[in-house]
Amino acid sequence: MLNIRLVEEKDLDRVVEIENSIYPSPWAYSIFKREITNEVSEFYVLEKDGIIIGYGGIWKVLGEAHVTNIAVEKKYRGQGLGNTIFEFLINRVIELNYYGITLEVKASNKVAKSLYIKHGFEEVGIRKGYYFENGHREDAIIMWKMIESDNEWVK
What we know:
It contains 4 helices and 7 strands. The longest helix is centred in the middle third of the chain and has 15 residues, at 81-95. It has one domain (2-146): Aminopeptidase (3-Layer(aba) Sandwich), CATH 3.40.630.30. By secondary structure, it is α+β, with helices and mostly antiparallel strands. The radius of gyration is 15 Å and the shape is globular. A 7-stranded mixed beta sheet has the order 1-2-3-4-5-7-6, with helices on both faces. β4 (64-72), α3 (81-95) and β5 form a beta-alpha-beta unit.
């Protein structure tokens, strides 16, 4: 059974384990710890049968949200679980009555870009050399989705 819930400090070792297995330049434990104590951050884990297999987070700033990360453990990929986390985050932003969501994605990450486009995100810019991994720089594509809202920041 799948469950998405707010991350707790006791979950961080597992989150970092997944992060380290996926990314060449992973976030450190201290960064994840800051995410769960920062009032502008909401960070969630995806559990399958009580085991953490993925995570995702947003920052909440002035009526919009920024997706900080979405990850699914490698052995669980290809089952739509990244989509599950992403849809949860989008619905959370709608619950908050925010007017938009932004994110960055590696220019080479076709799978993620396809997921974001499927959910109505549009490419709105490029951050040149944003990612630095294994001695190489890669551009980030900035993506944006406007949400129907009566949020005061839209007016």
